[in-house]
Amino acid sequence: ENNSIYTTTGNGVRETVSFAYQIDMEVLLRDGNTSHGMFRNYYGCWKAYIQYIQDGIQKLDSDRIYRIKLDIRKFYDNIPQYCVRRVVFPALLEALRADSERFLAFQEKEIENDVNALAERVTDWILGELFENQYYDSENGIVTEKEEALIGIPQGPNLSAYIANIILFDMDTKVLKMVDEVNESAKEGKIIIRYARYVDDM
Questions:
Q1: How far apart are CA 166 and CA 33, in angstroms?
Q2: Number of H helices, E strands in the chain
Q3: pTM of the model
Q4: Residue 7 CB: number of other CB atoms within 10 A?
Q5: pLDDT per residue over 147-173, tens digit each?
């Protein structure tokens, strides 16, 4: 719902706390405006992120407000391949079990019954796109070999940003569990802590 916006969040998270790269279902399901691709436009996501924080400030059970802003240092450069596989493969497997005709472009046969093999193939394609051995050096434009092929994804492409966002869903779940424990002692309708994330900015 939410104006046909599918807000990305992890399993077990009861509310949206991650606001980057939200999927626009109007585009995917109803042939809507595709000028911004399958994702909600940046401004809409950022505005929702700020609004969620502002709403939390209004609910705080205190006259004094502390804001803690965190950023994961060199996040994209340090994402390991195994971490991406651990998140992507189960999600693809679940999607394919629900609809075996998804990802037809990756099927070697007209109808492929082995969803595990298909999920593995799509996962390998995603990993291949993200973890290439070479990159363009932004300072001189020269194609350069990566020191570690299995660590670090490029910044900029939508695929990179989306993956960088969803691999932190597990962290969201753990942080929200602690936030809920603290907020239990707040007055009714009030909170003590609010947590929100925009990719690696919290």
A1: 24
A2: 6, 4
A3: 0.79
A4: 16
A5: 788 999 888 788 888 899 999 999 999
